[in-house]
Amino acid sequence: MAFLKESNPRNLDNDQREEKSFSCAMQLSTSIVLPMVLHSAFELGVFDILSKAGPGAKLSPSQIVAQMPTKNPDAAMMLDRILKLLVSHSMLGCTMVADEEFGSFQRLYSLTPVSEYFMTNEDGVSLGPYTALAQDQVFIKSWFSILHDWSDEYCLKLLKNCYNAIPNDGKVIVVEAVIPTIPDISTPMKSTYQLDMLMMTHYPGGKERTQEEIMALATMAGFSGIKFECSVCDLWVMEFFK
Questions:
Q1: In sequence order, what are the residues at sequence separation of 6 or more whose Cβ sits closer than 8 angstroms to the Cβ of residue 225?
Q2: What residues are paired with 104 via a beta bridge?
Q3: Are 80 and 32 in contact (CB under 8 A)?
Q4: Most buried pick, 7, 77, 79, 226, via CB within 10 A?
Q5: CATH classification number, 31-128, choose in 2.60.40.1190, 3.30.930.10, 1.10.10.10, 1.20.1050.10
Q6: How many CB atoms lie within 10 A of CB 224?
């Protein structure tokens, strides 16, 4: 009977869906690990080491560790485990090559279009510090004058002050994430929903808002309308008109 059950395509589809759903649930329940590992890789200089090796460079964990100030004999093994997680999120590339000395295989890691944002560019800038900021206690305890950090009540006071401060033909530029009314499964929205969770847990009343919620705040503050000018890097540039 078990064989007959397993051979039923419908049952197989159900089992596969259930397994996929469980895997997704497990990933979400441990999702805090990814930013911690990403931060560690940045602090260890992994992205810069790969970048300095040249375009298209592929390095083994041992080659990467050789450029780090560590004497830990297990460093290469530990780094290999870290990098495998980043590969699974397309943050690094991985190539398997034969290791003739030991008669086995080894993994060589390389940059991807995503990881390039975490290496230091010619201006000395990367997303690494931003990743560190999101986990830093100073960030958690700090307050910033931007809308998504604040409750609707405080945002209304802030926008009213802006309204009163600008001339009759003036406008206020707001740069914020905008979430859809119906949950979206796209990669950009996953990032925005995660930001929403940061706002909820770190700032009383803080949240990402829908277009309708932003329009309501603007109207209550006295603005005649909003123009959603453009979207850049998952953020909307909005013009609030008096």
A1: 218, 241
A2: 99
A3: no
A4: 79
A5: 1.10.10.10
A6: 10
